[in-house]
Task: structure prediction
Amino acid sequence: MIVLRRAVILLVTTAVASLVVFALLAVLPGDPAQVALGVNATPELLAKARHEFGTDRPLPVQYADWLGGLLSGDLGRSYVTGEPIAPRLLDRFEVTLWLVGTAMVIAALVAVPLGAFAAVRHRRTSGVLVSAASQLGAAVPGFLAGILLVEVFAVHLRLLPSGGWTPPNADFGAFLRGLVLPALSLGLVQAAVLTRYVRSAVLDVLRADYLRTARAKGLGPVRALVRHGLRNAAVPVVTVLGLQLATLLVGAVIIERVFVVPGLGSLLLDAVGTRDLVVVQDVVMLLVVAVLLVNFLVDVLYAVLDPKLRRA
Amino acid sequence: MRSLVLGGALVGLIVLAALLSFLWTPYDPTLVDAALRLRGVDWAHWLGTDRFGRDVASQLMVGARTTLYVGLVAVGVAALVGTPLGLLAASGPRWLGELVARVNDLVLAFPALLLAIMLGAGFGASTGTAMIAIGVATVPSFARVARAAAMQVLTTEYVLAARSAGRRPLAISVRHVLPNVAGLLIVQSSVSFGIAVLAEAALSFLGLGTQPPTPSWGRMLQESQELLAVQPRLVVVPGVAIALAVLGFSLLGDGLRDRLDPRLKGVGDAGR
Result:
């Protein structure tokens, strides 16, 4: 029931979001035809280009056309290169997904044990240190982490490439080597943020009555936590993980620029540079849909993990 | 207590540097001098010069101004729009609460970076587009905090008393609810400020925020990133400034939260 309700909300929000993206970019100043042809273009050439781009039609028609295209997988053609956008977008999205997925795994692998450790030992020096380190780490911008990692591992140690991208099916070893640094820059900063949430969630659980009961009936601290605590601690952590996935998608835009990775972010920033508005529109829409979809999945998962919320 | 003092000190330091920069900086931060390119740290230039011969310490001070300015406007916009929305959602009819929640979901789907890119694509990137983008993206956090806190206050006895005395919902919101949720909103402002500083740095790093010649920490980093091997100071100085500013505001937020609500001490340090 809740899934159905959330699905309807997802559809409506996506529709409104598409309207927002279209409206924002359509009302903004700037004529794509003028941008494509330059300032010296004759009025005839401009009119011809506007007709080709379809920007001479009324806005509602343009919107309906764009939305129809989105639904059928046709994202239009670039104003600058004239090439169809959809295949390029998919290629780039795949690269970004590799990056974000790996970063997410790194963040979870680092943060869950560290956060639990910091919670269990919250009164001891080791726990406080982990906690302080995570607070400091969360304040470091991802691009700074990226620049520093390049300096250490690419420039000084010469272990890994400082940038670039090899597709996994071309040379898997090179693909992995190229993936490590950008994924680490993205993942470690998120790990710092996530560690704080995990710590706080586990601390809440440690103070809960049911855990005291579990301990009282003779379970050791670790077993009590694993058998009774982790599932409860998982609810807030999963929510944060979902929200972080959205942050990571956006963070990838920045990291891709640092490491010259040909993902969605590079495509977006290049399109902004050449004022290829239709590409900007498509990439932004894809990212927005991805964020909405992730939030939807988090809500659903939330309901599955926490039975109290199932009827809400 | 410790986070309050440490956070307060860091934020205070940045505010001081920014205020001082209005009256005095060691050099003109935008003054390009080829003869002074890439000077190391010495008495004349405390933090050296960059590859255009500009004084790094002066740029850092004026950059603090940019950082605070963007944060203030962005958080101000978010608080002024988000708080009334949250209060309305809590005290208004059910459908209104639902509507605010849906609008929140929608805005959450547009992170600051995407908004800044769209605004930048049309108007040309500037400090203004960055501030507005960060501000709009921060509205949902204020709306959520205000709504959740107001819901709690609305169940208290003095609100019931005011209601039975015939006070209108709007008057109750302003007279009783707002003063009681103000503390939490201040905490949220500090936390959001830290996030705004990080966002501004990222936008300026990408060239989507503050434009030259106005100094900004994110752009100082971007301009010198390829010099890291030769002149690490040029990357480390603005990098540390950004990290300390973000850390300062988030510690200050945590410290204020502990002060306001001792019940949450040590627990809520990650809850937003």
